[in-house]
Every structure is written in structure tokens, then in C-alpha cells.
Here is the input.
Amino acid sequence: MFKFLTYMQVLLGISLIFWSVCTLLSGFVTSYWQLALLRFGLGLGEAGCTPFATSLIADYFGQELRGLAMGVYNWGIYTGYSLSYALGNFITDANINNQGWRWSFIIAGIPGIVIGFIILLTVKEPKRGQKNLPSTTKIESSIGNATSTKEKFKQMFKLMRPSLLLLCIASSIRNAAGYVWAYNTQVYFDGLGQTPTQIGTWMSWIPVVGGSIGVVFGGFISDRVVKRTGPHGRIWVLALSQIMSSPFAAGVLFLDPPYCYFSLLPNYIIGEMWVGVALAVLVELVPADVRTTAVAAYFFIISNIGGNMPLLVPSVKRAFINAGYGEVDSLRNTLYLFFPGEYILGAVLFLVSLVVLHRDIEYIKQQQEEKVPAKEDTHSQMPSNYGSASTLATDDQ
Here is the structure.
């Protein structure tokens, strides 16, 4: 009766609508507990969107376009971040109907409700794992799929492979840099004497332009590289992009306005290449049967580690103040550690993951060859649920 609730596009649409309704209703609260309850619901709806959307994208797009598709999807991060400055500063200042900040939430919630219903009415459920198959191979999609609870637990255990764990840790550190900067952007520029209008003017377009270019360019480059080198190529894109962007991140803190904003743009373009690329690596290294769970676990890890990193900022800032630095300089020095500093640390950890990635790919290849019947050509026919990783592992044939 409720089989339709197992479809990814239905769950995605419901999650988005629920998220957006909670956002819209936040503009009508009259007490703290109402707002707290809606924030809980907002987080619940948000948590469901990316795992379902990523799983759909992985099934709709093959290896040759997957990184680019993930990048396009992640445009939403930077569009939303930029719009938050436009809505938070300009709409609040406009004081529509004498309601101040309330209209920011109301306006922000409406588009998601509309898009959620569009998803429910137009997006079709793809066949699980079909885009993982090599283009020259036509085999049963059931080969290697988890068909029992015991088998599914075995598949889940494979999510604990070292390369995946290192990818999660590296992504968590890099994500932490973004969280720290996002939570302290307004405070930092306020300390430099910038007005809300000045901050809103720059920050309403720099993240969306720079970030959107970065995630799409990163996906495009990694899709080109992966054809030659396998998933190792995507890891190199992850590491090098963070190393190259760290000087621009430092420039944001070193330079005075408006030059700091000029440094922020290339920081977004280069530094945000990692988002879609990391997701592409993840979905190519896990079975199709547990892909949604893997993505959910990935975001749980990077959100909890990265999202809690800003809590360390006040303590470190206080240590600099006690050492004799001023308020602004203390925040700047703290951000040096947590902004460009974590770019570099994340890059190092991405490179470390290369050490174990080859071993994990060989393990996947060995496992799938054991599952393919002996009469079939195991060199060219790969199980659908490991298709991407195995194809990448044998791309030199």
C-alpha cells in the first residue's frame, strides 16, 4: 500500500517540502520553543535531501558525467549561502509590514515547497545501479546485489574500508573550514568596520558565482581525469584544489576591504571544487544497495565533525586575546588556523587516502570476480553494484 514511499524521488520531494514548510513557519513563531521545534524539523527535512538526491544522481548519470552532475547539484549550497546574505541583510532592513526578520524565513521557504511538488510530479525512479555498468556490458542487475538481511549487513560492513574512512575524515576537516568561515564571516567583516549593506553587497554574489563555478569545474576536471587514472585522479583533484586555494583563503584574512573580497572569489572557485568530487568518489566505491546509507553516513560524519568545529573558535580566540592580541587580530589569527589551515590539513589527508585506495579497489575487484559465474568473462563483465569502482580499477586494460 505504501510502496511508493520507498521511491527515492518521493522521499526526496517529501523531505524538501517538509524542510521548506518548517523554514516558512519560522517566520510566524511567537516563542522560543516554537522556533526550536521548527529548527528540529528543518534539520530533519534537510538531512533527507542530499542522501536521496545523490543516490538518484548516481543512478541517472554514469562515471563519465557523475562528477559534473554532483557539482551541478551542489550549486544549491552556494546559491543558498549567497541568498542568505541578501535576505538576511536587505529583507530584514526593508522591514516589510513591520515584521523585520520574519519575511526572510517566509520568502526563503516558498521556493522549496514549489520545487518539492515538481520533483514528486516529474522525476522518475531509475533502476538501481544501472549506470554503474560498463557501456560494453549487459548483465543481470541482480548479480552481487544484497538479497538478504545478512548480505546487507555484509555490504554495510564494507563501508568501513580504510579508503572510505579516510575520505570521510579528510572531507570532515575540509568541511570544518567552510563551517568556521561561514559562521564567522559577518563577525569578521563587522570587526573590519564593514556595514551590513557593504557585507551583503559582496557576499550576496561572491559565494554563488565562485562556488558554482568551482563545484562544476571540479566535477568536469575529475570526470576527465578519472577516465585515465581511475578514482586516484579524483583524489588528486581534491588534494591539489585545496593546496592551490589556501593562499587565497589566507589573502581574505591578510588583505583589507575591498581587496579581501577580491581574494575570496578565487578561493571559492578553486577551494569549492572538492564538494562534488568527494561525493563522486564515495558513490563509486560503495555498492548500489547501500549507496543512500553510505551518503547519509558520510554527511552525518562530516556535518558532526565539521559543524562542531566552530565551537573551538571562541576558546582559541580567547587564548590569543590573553596573549596580548586585539579583538580583531585574535579572530584573524584564529581563522588562519581554522580556515586556510584546515584547507592544507584536508589536502594532506586526501593524499594519505591514496595510499590505501589502490588496495581497496583491488579488494573490490577480487570480490566481484568471485561472484561472476565462471562461464562469463570476468574481465569485462562486472557486477552492477560495484561497477564504477571495478571499471575504474581496470581502466588500463
Observations:
- The chain is about 75% helix and 0% strand.
